[in-house]
Design a protein that fits this description.
The protein is elongated, with a radius of gyration of 35 Å. It has no helices and 44 strands. The strands form eight sheets. Strands 2, 4, 6, 7, 11, 13, 15, 17, 18, 20, 23, 26 and 31 form a 13-stranded mixed β-sheet that branches. The C terminus is likely disordered. β34 and β35 form a beta hairpin. By secondary structure, it is mainly β.
Length: about 675
Amino acid sequence: MDNGGTWGNYTPLQTPQPLRATLAGRAYLYPEGALTFAELELPGEAVLTHLTGQSNVHLHVAGNLRIGASSAISVEGRGYPIGDEQGPGAGTRADWSGSGASHGGLGGWSRTSAGPTAQYGSMLEPTLLGSQGGSANGGPGTAGGGAIRLIVDGTLTVDGSLNANGASAPPDNAGGGAGGSIWLTVGTLSGNGAISANGGPGEWVDGGGGGGGRIAVYYGRSEFTGAITAYGGGGNQRGGAGTVYRREQGAAYGQLLVHNGGAWGNYTPLTSPEPFQLILAEMAYVYPVEPLTVRDLEVRANATLTHLTGQDRCDVTVLNNATVAEGGHVSTDGRGYPLGADLGPGAGVQRDCCGSGGAHGGTGGRSGSGADGGTPYGSLTEPLERGSAGGAGTGGPGGAGGGVVRLRVGNTPDPRRSRHRQRAQRRSGQRRWWRRRQHLSDGENPGWQGGHPGRRRCRGMGGWRRRRRRPHRPPHQHSLLHGELFARGGGGHQRGGAGSIYRLTLGQPGGELVLDNGGNAGALTPLEVPAQTRLILRGGSSFYPAGTLKVVSLELEPGASLTHLTGQPALTVHVDQDLRVAAGAALVADGKGYPLGNDPGPGAGVNGPVCGGGGAHGGTAASPGPGMCSVDKLTAPCSNPRPSARVAAEAVRRPPANEARAEAPCAWSSVASSPWTAP
């Protein structure tokens, strides 16, 4: 079929029997139904398409199918609308602009906050049309892409174009149509052209871009060197990336690529109908609709795996290997509380102008106006709760807490050089729980940092998250993780308390617990330590146990402290093996005794007309010297369980070392006539 080099109207096609066909000379054709060919060739300047309202181009070629460099099988803009039906992922309108339509990826938001509708369709067997973009004051949104189904028993050569893109050239302020569907089953795939189901562009200032479509390729052998893409379309916000699934015949599993062409757009929601190899790349922004089970996970540079606010967690089971490359992110920053009006169990509070930090693993920081930080909560060994929100201030609500990541990795998780960016102010942290069966691979810096500092004079910061890391390390293997794990409180008027990092080798009775606040003193961190734990405190962390602390070993590195709260009976520590307190670290209970409410203690000092006497415990308390106010003498029983508090400030003086004392060791009497020395 040849139109002599001039584009004309359509030519409908039928194949009453398998034919060898050549389409050339600017022929423009559409099938009236499913077609069967012995051979099919489009050598130059011919287009095979389907009409709007047809389900798809459905071809079965028993031999080879070749698409020349200037030819195409193209169903661009042949999806929805069909009459008044705009499609299951149609865009919406708000005021004067429209959002992009959804299919494999979500459509982009418009400038006037018109949002997308739900994604749809099959990533393994895509056959559905792309939906229409949202309408605007300039007219209706553009049409979505059509659908192509090709079965080629021989070789499919694509040197030209095989596309199901959303339509281009949207009217003013309108949204772009979603990409359509391409489903290929071929013996050999070759060529250097383009296979695409990209979303259509929205109007570039106000309209949202169309979401990418869906492509699935099943092949016996691949020699194709061209591009296979399902990008979101551009606009006020780019549409989310669609899905590209590839599977070699006879392979146990396929590969799913989510790739947005190097431009951030809206989300790509994912399910896992089979455990494929999942690759996220080039500014793909992905969240699981439900818990995912995949063969391998690779998060490449400038790609993000997350969950939405309100979802329980980002829950992924990886049967083999997980790799997070430098610049890639598994991040749920700011995806915790608030959920509606619920600020979380450790929410910060507002007092006067300022709000305190939210809590989770550590206590939230106190605000400059005296608002106490949130109270810690959650499990140290199985952390699956969101971080709480910070307290509100005069400038608005506090920052959101972090979300939850749950990874189960069968072989080797490899978070190479990945670092979560600092995000929301005054928030508590997110939890991550990694479980693995072999070992951690090398990573220069796989850390996750805390939040941005708030305004130092007014706001507290959130306590940070808990993380559990459980590598399996048989006797002959070692952990190869050379980077750091961070669970630090964020800065502010008072820094939040350090969160917890718990590491357990599977099959071992106990693990290692690390508290590290990055060298910055902050709020206290309370913990109930699991049995058989090696405890390490470092980097400004300040920790108090809920009761008697029993550990295998205890190490306090410079800047760390272990204490108890006022009102707790004592700091009691039982260490089975070694206890090490480095220079600059401390086990300290300074100022943690009486008063307890209105009780100043059994050895409390007594008020005088102007000054007060010192409190006593094991030693006698001092009274003021000659010419100063007089006080009654004190008795300090040896059995007093804690030091007594001073009643009022006074000048403390000690008698000379050679002064004789006749009193019993636990009694005190005035020695006002004796000489005194300065303390």
